[in-house]
Amino acid sequence: MTGPGKWTDLRVRALSGLIVLAVGIFAVLQGGLALLLLAMAVSGLSLWELARLTGPLHPQRSILIGLLAAGAMASVLHLHGPFWLALLVLPSLVGMIGARRDRLVYAVYGFAIMLSVYAFVAFREGFGLAFAMWLVLVVITSDLMGYFGGRLIGGPKFWPRLSPKKTWSGTVAGWAGAGLVGIGFALQFGQPVWLILFSALTAFAAQMGDIVESAIKRRAEVKDSSNLIPGHGGLLDRFDALIGAAVFVLAWGFFGLPLPIFEG
């Protein structure tokens, strides 16, 4: 049974979410400098939030880590080449210097953030706009279907220890939503049926990305990664699912497994 309390944050959440979505979609459509600036902003602000979540509150130090992450991302995307990819791990290494509550968590998740941002830009530039839009739509649709499915249906929790609000109904609804995206792209671009399953698997990876970030916040005993986005919390609260999805797709391709090719 649903009550009005479950929907009190919907208006603010929807408005701020639309603004973030509009900025993101604009950068993805434009590519080039716009996408580079978005990648710098996402990596820098996300590492700033992570530094605050996993260590003592040293505002200047967290800001410096964020600036380092943004600069490293700009360098990797501008200079290209396998040698420069090593810069993606730089914020993790620097952030481990000095006192930190969760060194390993910070290092691994910090690298995952940098890797996912780089991967998404590489997808956009290497595989084209349609591929990037497929990934974004899988994550967004899974999140929306999960949000409404969980609140309308409710039921048993998916992983209450790490993510108390996530239900099985919302999780499965997210898979179904991603599958619908897969159907649409398969029909539009003549892709095989396996794209439907691959979209659902990508949605599952996105959900795991959300759960990982929830676990980090629980360890830090905070509700949101920051208060940058009204109704959503911080940037990590909004991009955690895309982090999981992008890393999954990158790993899938790294091991030589087939990726969808959208042409036409």
Characterise the protein shown here.
The protein has 264 residues and is mainly alpha-helical. It has one domain (4-254). Helix content is 72%, strand content 3%. The chain has 9 helices and 2 strands, in the order ααααααββααα. It has a two-stranded antiparallel sheet with strand order 1-2. A hairpin with a 3-residue loop joins β1 (157-159) and β2 (163-167). It starts with 9 loop residues before the first helix and ends in a 10-residue tail after the last helix.
Query: What is the domain tally?
Result: 1
**Unreliable stretches covering 5 or more consecutive residues:** 1-7
Strand portion: under 5%
Rg, alpha carbons: 18 Å
Total beta strand runs: 2
Number of H/I helices? 9
End-to-end distance: 46 Å
Q: Helix-strand pattern, N to C?
A: HHHHHHEEHHH
The residue-averaged pLDDT reads 88
Structural class of the secondary elements?
mainly alpha
Largest sheet: 2 strands, antiparallel
Spatially, the strands of the biggest sheet line up as 1-2
Helix content: over 70%
Tell me the overall shape. Answer: globular
